[in-house]
Amino acid sequence: TDTSIFKPCQNRQEVRKALGLDNSAKVIVFSGRLGTYYKIDNFLKALARAIIETSSIRRKVKLLLVGEFASSSYSKIFTKIVEDLDIKEHIMNIGVIESPRILAQILSACDVGLIPRVDDPLYDYAIPAKFYEYIACGLPLFVIANRGSELWNIVEYHKLGYTCEPTNIVCIVQAIKDIVFNEEKLESFRARVLEIQKFIDRRKGAEALYTIIESLIGQAKCGSLQ
User: Fold this and answer.
1) Residue 160 — φ and ψ, nearest 5°?
2) 56-76 b/e with 16+ CB inside 10 Å = b?
3) Helix (H, G, I), strand (E, B) or coil at 141
4) Does residue 226 register a pLDDT over 60?
5) Would the pTM of this model clear 0.85, i.e. be above it?
6) What's the confidence (pLDDT) of residue 144?
């Protein structure tokens, strides 16, 4: 990602105040397009269950949605789930943010970055752009993806956050509770995220790729001369 834009902001409290977010609440943010390969149904069900099981979670957790729905049909499904589960007060949808700098400020003002992948194995080898943006903004990750997928493996190996399989509601419930109540664990993930920020700068990545390509071209020329 462009780390000159996506980086931890210094005015975190001001941004939260402008958004109307309680400073005492843990804010889980999803940035992107819901309804295709990102679906949030099971996260919503887990959120409702976590609130029922531990009533003190109420008012201590917020889901912030930044982006849009892939279709009007999924938007309706989302709305119905939220209404049926009676969790509307825990969700804030601010829509599409066109400015990358403003988006970066909003992400930085949150506590955890959510990536709710569908369980289609087709996506197991992809790392989404939001992974890098969350990391650049200093956010621990909450990854809902297939066990053994590239995204799962990276987060687990580097201890960057929480991982749950898409259909494992129990795991998602526990992760939500940990985010709210286990500050030490959350801080340990945040420290690991800050340690690997230097590896996700797209300019450095481009320079490394250029060096590799240049080397391969040189080897190919050498081989053709022989």
Assistant:
1) -95, -5
2) ebeebbbbbbbbebbeeebee
3) strand
4) no
5) yes
6) 97
